[in-house]
Amino acid sequence: MTMELRIAPPLQERPAGVRQRWRERRRERQRLARQDRLAAHLAELHRIRALIGDARAVIASGWVQQGWFTYRDPQGHQRTINAGNLRSIGDRPVTGACLVGAIVQAGGGLAAVRSQPVQRALDLTWHTLFGDDREPIRWCPAPPIRSAQVRDLTRWNDQSERTSDDVVSLLDATERAAGAELERARGGS
């Protein structure tokens, strides 16, 4: 019995033109993916800016301290909502809100409290009030950090010397910060 050793022919490499076209297609996919990410970021910033504007309107209808929301009960009495009686608001119309409550209400109410637009609007508001303009905005802080930031905003709102004009001024500044982020994103810097 004789064994014959066969050597396979070398694998042929793809012609240079095929490799080049593949690289061009890959670069184009990457470019389009970057454009999609930028478009999504710009759309989100527009949504955040509009949400902040809507929050300002909620504050204008009634500002609350030491609670999250107010509503009128069937007897016409103003009731304050906080963590202890949150579910009692049901589907009643909100007549007033604190800073955080106004952002939540503008974003769609309690059902939207964990939505990305509401969370990012809170991130931007905190950054506007407490952050450093030279530092980037932390859009997705860890949950314990985000909770601490919401507590910071709540404490700020509830300070005895605070006024509704202070809250409106903060929302104006946050809306301008969203506009500045839009310009930065458009400019690519």
Summarize the SSE layout with pairings:
Blueprint: H1 16-61, E1 69-72, E2 78-81, E3 94-97, H2 99-106, H3 116-130, H4 143-158, H5 164-187
Antiparallel strand pairs: 1-2, 1-3
Label the structural class.
mainly alpha
Radius of gyration over all CA atoms, rounded? 26 Å
Mean pLDDT: 87
Q: How does the major sheet shape up? A: 3 strands, antiparallel
Concise account of the structure shown:
The chain is mainly alpha-helical.
Give an overview in words:
The protein has a domain at 27-61 and 98-187. It has five helices and three strands. It has helices at residues 16-61, 99-106, 116-130, 143-158, 164-187, and strands at residues 69-72, 78-81, 94-97. Strands 2-1-3 form a three-stranded antiparallel beta sheet. The protein is elongated. Pfam families: DUF6197.
Keywords summarizing the entry:
single chain; 189 residues; mainly alpha; three-stranded antiparallel sheet
